[in-house]
Amino acid sequence: MAMLDSDTPADRNLASLQRFLYLGDDFHPYPRSVAYPFSLERTQLIKEFEEKGLESEILKEIKHAYKFGYHLGYEPLIFTLALLGHSSKIRIKEEALKVASEICTSAGMLLTFVHIYKDISKPSKGWGRAHRRFLIRWYNEKDAKDLAKEVTKVKSCHKWTHKDVLCMAHVKAKHAGNAAVLKYLVKGLEVAQKDCGSEPDAVPILDYLKGVYEVCHSTDPENVARLVEVHDLCLEHIPSKLLKSKEVSLCIIPRIPLHNLLELLPQFNKAGLLKPNSPHYRNGKNSNKILPGKPIVRQSTPELDEALQNLHLSSFKNVRHMEKHT
């Protein structure tokens, strides 16, 4: 994100927006949380941009922050998009919802957007046409297998379920595979199999959903491990109590992203997978050993030293001036 010299009100507002998108707060030096709800001042900041007709700048900053990872959490981005989604300008509303479609790739992000959008809409209880179109696109434009995977990974968020969204927005599927997923979410597996089982495109999707259902209701670790292998399930599909099983843990570990894997190391250690005398530990050890000796020292060069010094000095430009004298 570009460094800004906050010499003008416009620069200061843009710097505040960038800080809010990154931290969820544009005032306190050390925000407590980047989670919704945010203070009313954040709404005022967005309104100031709207009054000046700079909504496109906000959308540009949101896309930039999302693309390059300039955010500690995604809720500030979603909150800002939800505010713009309520704009009285039809073009801005449609552009905001279009960006929301690009950003809300996961079911958790979608349900978070729905929660914030409806919260901002209070006391109104209805769903606007633009918002309905956004939801219909989300459930229809995804590949049926990807949709099934997403909605079974995150079934609810902020007290919203997919069934709530589908029923209130009257989402209808355009393809047989997606229809099977929506029927499963609203009516359950048995009804989905009965109503969609005759459609060739829906058969593999129903088989996948059946596998997820069996994993959630099974108590046999070996059977769960088999289903994980057959359907290529992920961590979110596994009940936490079954992760204590060595069979399930060994099956799911290769499918866990690295940052989640590090968080689960204590749990896998309790399962006995990291003990030095464990066969799993011995088989997974890296044969390349670090030889004893002095620690590696960074080789200093004038160019590297200058680059680090410039980076250090430029970082202070992102620190908001508190107008206090020491």
UniProtKB/TrEMBL annotation:
Renumbered residue ranges of the record's region Disordered: 276-295
Key word Transport present: no
GO molecular function: metal ion binding; RNA binding
Any one of the GO CC terms: cytoplasm
Subcellular location: Cytoplasm
TROVE domain residues: 1-326
Primary localization class, coarse: cytoplasm
Keyword Cell inner membrane recorded: no
Keywords for the protein's UniProt record, in alphabetical order: Cytoplasm, Metal-binding
Name the record gives this protein: TROVE domain-containing protein
Organism: Caerostris extrusa (Bark spider)
Gene: RO60
